Amino acid sequence: MSTRPVPRRTVLVAAGVAPLLGLVAGCTGQPPGPDAVTPAQVDRLAGQVAAQEQLVAAGVAAFAASPELAATAAGLAAQWQEQLDLLRAAAPTVTSSASGSASGSESGSTSGSGATAPGSADGGVGVDPRADLRTRVAATADSHATACPEFTGARAALLGSIAAGLRGHGAVLA
Predict the structure, then answer these.
(1) What gap in Å lies between CA 56 and CA 53, rounded to an integer?
(2) Which of 12, 56, 92, 161 could form a disulfide with 102 if both were Cys (CB 3.0 to 4.6 A apart)?
(3) Which region ranges are annotated with the description Disordered (predicted)?
(4) Predicted TM-score of the model (pTM)
(5) Is the torsion defined by CA of 115, 118, 119, 122 positive or negative?
(6) Could you tell me what percent of the chain has a pLDDT over 70?
(7) By C-alpha distance, which of 51, 64, 78, 62 is closest to 131?
(8) How far apart (Å, rounded) are the C-alpha atoms in residues 110 and 117?
């Protein structure tokens, strides 16, 4: 019986493959969970939903106050509502909030952008609806952009995308 020495190539291949097999086995042990969020992130998402609700309500009020503005920028309202629906879907415990509709959130809550709906503070006297709405769009974009780095994955992408879109809406309202 002769014992043949193991070729050096076989030893090197085996030494390189063994750690990779262990790594692969470790990676496939548990499937990745859903895009989980911390309690602080849940609160932050709720604030972003509220900020978007306020923007939708501000749009409704501004378009009602200015038919000319409504005629030139009506498509924005639909986009803001769609963004709100996406934010609600992305927020694990935030549903259609107590407002239920866009106009229900215009008083009280200031979470997110810190703004209230047009006319709520001074009765709307002397307020330029276009300028006021442009300011609210910018504040909501800032709110979403500020929150974006606190998230990963789809939620970060959503907040960043909405913030960028709102920047474009501000230009439309200029």
Answers:
(1) 5
(2) 56
(3) 95-129
(4) 0.65
(5) positive
(6) 61
(7) 62
(8) 10
Q: Could you state, in order of their start, the residue ranges of all structural domains in the chain?
A: 39-173
- Per-residue pLDDT tens for 21-74? 444 444 444 444 556 778 889 999 999 999 999 999 999 999 999 999 999 998
Count the residues in the chain.
Answer: 174
3-state secondary structure of 160: helix
H/E segment holding residue 135: helix 129-147
58 backbone dihedrals φ, ψ, rounded to 5°: -65, -40
Fill in the amino acid letter for 143: S
